[in-house]
């Protein structure tokens, strides 16, 4: 039975009275409720298992972790059970709500430093515990930091937590996108070497910025841009005018967490010793400073929902675009980011077009910023409904050096955006110089930690079928050794295998990652990308057709298998085929005849470009009187130009190979025709004989 608290919480829905809604996630709704026999107010998270067709193991893990953890800063479930097609998770009621909701209600510009220090210290204590027990939380963010009425802080939502000690199939899933983009560590995005608990430290740093500003860095951008910015830009920090109010130690703490190389990030344990936390205060201080005067959680939640609805109506046109819908879900503070790799690639392909508009706006900002006119940020702020939504108050000035850098980067996005996307997965910036705090030297870097990943999906639905409570047991998929305490009441599995996880039966905790797209959630947005996808359809390997490494997109989190994300794999199907890399039957439909025109076109472009270059060099020579030997040799006669580039030669070779293939195909066709004729002759002879008989 999934019950670990000293009190015996009933595992039957009829023993609870559900009151108002106090929270909503991607797939779950949270209610304030009364446990009738114990006369105690609780929170009940209701997940609709029917909608949860692709991540029952994930839910099982979340409930297990929630039930088994034993730390004052981790939200622990009292018990859980199924009722009808819903899973109910009964937990302590955190009347203060999440830090995100508190900021949205009353601290739109973020909290004061002592508040931040107090909140972060408590979160860090939870992380120290989780990491020491082999868990990566993977979704650290203000929306998952809850406060009770006394100001006690608890880290919640183990929906995507992972066990670092997992081995075998699950270990193989280490190259899986999990998390929420703004808080996601670059190594999680890159998928080069997997990741470990240091990914939580990055998210922790982003959360620190979120608490300081009222929103996470890059939050005004759609998810694809967040990915690109996180990978390409210098890490965000507390380096701006508006951050002057923050102490040096706070800036150092953030800089230490937001180092792109995970090995250079401190462990949670080390971080807890950082002098920034000297200013942390008591729970009571939090209660007085940020909870006092807040309306009841249910009312706040209702108001926020109403605001969102208004905002949606006002910006309906904007949010018809599905990426913006996803963005809007971000704004609501939940982790609904729904992409698969094809979407990402296609978005990358589109990014030039999109940015040509935003760049115009933002270049003005950047240009003016260089001139030192700070107030121009207001124009951008007002013109951006997305941005404005982050603040309940009047639009505030905000532009960041990173944003400007990013816009410049994206503005200069190469001609082959897909290639660029590949590059950005390849590149891990060396940011050793970025914000190296002096105290960092004290940190013993403990990079040698097991890495691992898991993920989950949760589905919410209001109360339904409350009569047939079913006790959920402890799952076998959680290493039992890691939570030695509080097992006394556990028996069996938290979620029965046969109910929750048909896939579990083979003992393969990871098969979900290899499921084909029929498991895609209904939130698999493709929206504005449809045109391009249709256009590319002949060149693309059908995603549905993939098996090994198939994209599994999860509601609520990125989830992309490693095969597609391999940075070395061509992200452009065209390049894949011309290099002869693919033997997939679905790509074989790409005939030499269909490729040749493209190759010719590329060759032609190359030639044109060469000619342009020659003209330019000549012009430069004339204007500068440059008599450099190379220039002379290079421009006096086109024939003296250096031989074609290796790429050009490679393409020429490919053209020749393709022509040879066409030749052999034509031969093969002739052979088949001959065979046909011979068969026809044989058949005729046979029928003639039959006729005679
Ligand atoms: N015990 C609780 N007491 C009070 N409010 C809660 C409690 N648990 C969750 N909430 C509220 O409900 C919201 C959604 O819960 P939760 O984060 O668990 O759902 P989720 O589907 O995992 O969401 P997400 O995908 O955004 O992380 C939280 O952000 C929080 O505001």
Automatic annotation (TrEMBL):
Pfam family, one: Pkinase
SUPFAM superfamilies: Protein kinase-like (PK-like)
UniProtKB keywords: ATP-binding, Coiled coil, Nucleotide-binding
UniProt binding sites for ATP: 45
Recorded coiled-coil stretches: 648-675
Residue numbers spanned by region Disordered: 362-394, 433-511, 534-591
Keyword Lipid biosynthesis: no
Polar residues bias (residue ranges): 446-458, 569-591
Domain Protein kinase, first and last residues per copy: 16-277
Molecular function, one GO term: ATP binding
Family: Belongs to the protein kinase superfamily. STE Ser/Thr protein kinase family. STE20 subfamily.
Protein name, entry field: Protein kinase domain-containing protein
């Amino acid at each position: 039975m999934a019950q670990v608290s000293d009190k015996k919480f009933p595992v039957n829905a009829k023993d609870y009275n559900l009151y108002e809604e106090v929270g909503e996630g991607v797939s779950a709704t949270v209610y304030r409720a009364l446990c009738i026999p114990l006369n105690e107010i609780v929170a009940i998270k209701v997940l609709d298992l029917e909608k949860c067709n692709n991540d029952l193991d994930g839910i099982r893990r979340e409930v297990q972790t929630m039930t088994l953890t034993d730390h004052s800063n981790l939200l622990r479930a009292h018990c859980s059970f199924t009722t009808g097609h819903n899973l109910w998770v009964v937990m302590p009621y955190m009347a203060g709500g999440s830090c995100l909701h508190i900021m949205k209600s009353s601290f739109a510009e973020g909290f004061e430093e002592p508040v931040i220090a107090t909140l972060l210290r408590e979160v860090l204590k939870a992380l120290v515990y989780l990491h020491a027990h082999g868990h990566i939380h993977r979704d650290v963010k203000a929306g998952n930091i809850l406060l009770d009425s006394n100001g006690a802080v608890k880290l919640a939502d183990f929906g995507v937590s992972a066990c670092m000690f997992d081995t075998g199939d699950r270990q193989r899933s280490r190259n899986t996108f999990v998390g929420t983009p703004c808080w996601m560590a670059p190594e999680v995005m890159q998928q080069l070497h997997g990741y470990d608990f240091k990914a939580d430290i990055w998210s922790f740093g982003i959360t620190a910025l979120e608490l300081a500003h009222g929103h996470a860095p890059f939050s005004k951008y759609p998810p694809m841009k967040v990915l690109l910015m996180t990978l390409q830009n210098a890490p965000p920090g507390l380096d701006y005018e508006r951050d002057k109010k923050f102490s040096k130690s706070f800036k150092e703490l953030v800089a230490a967490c937001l180092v792109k190389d995970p090995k250079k990030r401190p462990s949670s344990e080390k971080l807890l010793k950082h002098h920034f936390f000297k200013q942390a205060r008591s729970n009571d201080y939090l209660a007085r400073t940020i909870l006092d005067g807040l309306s009841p959680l249910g009312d706040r939640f209702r108001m926020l929902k109403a605001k969102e609805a208004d905002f949606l109506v006002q910006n309906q046109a904007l949010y018809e675009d599905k990426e913006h819908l996803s963005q809007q879900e971000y704004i609501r503070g939940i982790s609904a980011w729904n992409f698969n790799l094809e979407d990402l690639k296609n978005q990358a392909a589109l990014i030039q077009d999109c940015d040509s508009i935003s760049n115009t706006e933002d270049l003005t900002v950047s240009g003016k910023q260089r001139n030192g006119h700070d107030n121009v940020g207001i124009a951008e702020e007002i013109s951006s409904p997305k941005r404005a939504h982050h603040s309940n108050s009047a639009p505030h000035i905000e532009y960041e050096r990173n944003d400007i850098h990013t816009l410049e980067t994206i503005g200069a996005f190469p001609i082959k955006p897909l290639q660029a996307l590949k590059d950005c997965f390849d590149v891990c910036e060396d940011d050793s110089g970025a914000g190296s705090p002096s105290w960092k030297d004290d940190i013993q870097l403990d990079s040698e930690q097991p890495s691992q990943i898991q993920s989950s999906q949760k589905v919410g639905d209001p109360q339904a079928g409350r009569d047939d409570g079913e006790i959920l047991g402890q799952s076998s998929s959680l290493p039992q050794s890691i939570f030695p305490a509080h097992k006394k009441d556990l028996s069996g599995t938290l979620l029965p295998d046969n109910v929750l996880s048909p896939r579990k039966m083979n003992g393969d905790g990871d098969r979900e990652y290899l499921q084909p797209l029929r498991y895609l959630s209904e939130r698999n947005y493709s929206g504005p990308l449809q045109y391009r996808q249709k256009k590319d359809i002949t060149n693309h390997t059908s995603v549905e057709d993939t098996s090994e490494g198939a994209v599994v997109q999860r509601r609520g989190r990125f989830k992309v298998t490693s095969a597609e994300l391999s940075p070395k794999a061509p992200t452009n199907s065209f390049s894949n085929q011309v290099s002869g890399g693919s033997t997939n039957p679905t790509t074989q439909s790409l005939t030499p005849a269909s490729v040749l025109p493209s190759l010719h076109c590329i060759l032609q472009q190359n030639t044109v470009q060469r000619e342009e270059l020659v003209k330019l060099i000549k012009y430069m020579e004339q204007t500068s009187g440059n008599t450099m030997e190379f220039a002379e040799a290079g421009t006096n006669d086109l024939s003296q130009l250096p031989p074609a580039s290796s790429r050009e030669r490679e393409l020429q070779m490919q053209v020749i190979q393709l022509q040879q293939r066409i030749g052999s195909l034509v031969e093969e066709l002739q052979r088949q025709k001959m065979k046909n004729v011979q068969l026809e002759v044989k058949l005729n002879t046979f029928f003639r004989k039959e006729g005679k008989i």
